[in-house]
Design a protein that fits this description.
Layout (H helix, E strand, L loop, with lengths): L11 E4 L3 H12 L5 E3 L11 H5 L4 E4 L11 H6 L4 E2 L1 H7 L6 E6 L4 H14 L4 E5 L15 E5 L2 H6 L5 E6 L7 H4 L2 H9 L5 E10 L12 E4 L4 H8 L9 H6 L7 E6 L2 E5 L6 H8 L5 E5 L18 E6 L4 H10 L5 E2 L3 H16 L6 E5 L12 H16 L2
Parallel strand pairs: 1-2, 1-3, 3-4, 5-7, 5-8, 6-7, 8-9, 9-10, 12-16, 13-14, 13-16, 14-15
Antiparallel strand pairs: 11-12
Helix pairs in contact: 13-14
Length: about 400
């Protein structure tokens, strides 16, 4: 396999040296291609002087988590915006022909939907791999010519990428998210719609009708309302057999996504740490009754916490996290009671004493739902770390 000619003998900068940056570096090393690295954490001591950013780079491989619009090097990004690419651009630059590529984006449910597509293909003995925003960087996976690529795309990846080539693309849903970065819901929607610009000549795109009520169908782009068999066949092909209980696959949640992981007598525990906005938490609340809800963290700009219409499902609400005061104000306006703690461990300890010990012999069933509706970085490394801590504290107090 040859490295794409476009990148040979070029000045390349990897900006951001987390999972994505390291996977790009590893690939460049494999082909003995020189590159430079910049990362805020590595360069705290100003290891690179001003001359470093005066270099005329041909390509800047950017990690999607970096916000070029408010970064301390934003002037550098403004001057070099056309040179910014992603690991996905490199992936699609290889001359290798991929059998079929499906791009999936949306505010909530991307990973679950990608997993559903793969499950259907597996049952049809069709090889496939999930790539992109799914956890493992795209450049770390080996794709054979007979495999379908299912690519989960965040708004950040769509915003920065330039050279994707998709056979099918779909936008599952849209609700306010990442507005601290995209500023307005309108901007957020525009970036999501950019996915259709990556369709091949004979490609087809599908968007959630309720999320884009004013958008009109075109030859290549159609709307859908439900994740039914017709829609799934539009994505995967008319000859694909879809099993009767395919909706159960959506219910078989991935880790940290409405994940039922433990039961103690009449109390069951749901880990939905992946929930970083209220729309996702609202969906989770609607799945259960007699809920002891835990929310909090770093809130998303433009998000609201209107639980009044859902209050019949709720027994109690626990709040924690850096911006708990904002949630408190919202709940007070709705006249919804709540309990506030500094950290997640203290919440689980209180639930054990207040709810479990008093109700463990009751005929009534309870659900402890950890669906934060906020980002995790105030107290945790990421949403996975947050979900694992929730499990750890649950076992600490309830598994005895």
């Amino acid at each position: 396999m040859q490295f794409p000619k476009d990148f040979l003998n070029k000045k390349i900068l990897i900006f951001g040296y987390g999972k994505t940056g390291k996977s790009a570096g590893k690939l460049l090393d494999k082909f003995k291609i020189n590159y430079s690295i910049y990362d805020d954490n590595i360069n705290k001591k100003k290891l690179f002087d001003k001359e470093f950013f005066k270099n005329n780079y041909d390509f800047i491989i950017l990690s999607p988590g970096i916000n070029i619009y408010n970064h301390k090097k934003k002037n550098f990004f403004q001057k070099n915006k056309k040179k910014i690419i992603t690991d996905l651009d490199i992936f699609f630059s290889f001359q290798k022909k991929y059998k079929f590529t499906i791009g999936v984006t949306g505010t909530n449910g991307k990973s679950g939907f990608c997993n559903l597509l793969k499950d259907i293909l597996d049952r049809n003995n069709i090889k496939s791999k999930i790539l992109g925003n799914f956890g493992i960087p795209v450049l770390e996976k080996r794709i054979s010519s007979d495999e379908i690529c299912i690519i989960e795309l965040s708004s950040y990846q769509i915003d920065y990428s330039k050279n994707l080539k998709l056979d099918k693309a779909c936008i599952l849903n849209i609700s306010p998210d990442h507005l601290e970065r995209h500023k307005t819901l309108s901007n957020y929607k525009k970036i999501k719609l950019k996915i259709f610009k990556f369709l091949k000549e004979n490609g087809r795109g599908y968007y959630h009708k309720q999320s884009f009520p004013k958008l009109k169908n075109k030859n290549k782009i159609k709307s859908f309302s439900n994740l039914n068999k017709i829609f799934l066949r539009n994505i995967l092909g008319k000859n694909v057999k879809i099993h009767k209980n395919y909706h159960n696959q959506i219910k078989n949640r991935l880790p940290h996504r409405v994940e039922f992981f433990y039961k103690k007598n009449n109390f069951k525990f749901i880990n939905d740490s992946k929930s970083t906005n209220f729309e996702a938490t609202k969906f989770a609340i609607q799945q259960y009754k007699n809920i002891i809800l835990i929310i909090g963290g770093l809130l998303k700009k433009g998000d609201s916490y209107n639980v009044k219409n859902l209050s019949n499902n709720l027994v109690d609400i626990y709040i924690f996290g850096k911006e708990n005061n904002i949630i408190q104000k919202s709940l007070k306006k709705q006249k919804i009671r709540f309990i506030c703690f500094k950290n997640l461990r203290d919440i689980l300890k209180n639930i054990y004493k207040k709810h479990y010990l008093e109700n463990k012999n009751s005929k009534k069933n309870f659900t402890v739902l950890f669906s934060p509706a906020a980002a995790s970085f105030d107290q945790f490394k990421n949403f996975e770390d947050r979900g694992n801590k929730f499990k750890k504290y649950t076992y600490e107090f309830f598994k005895n």
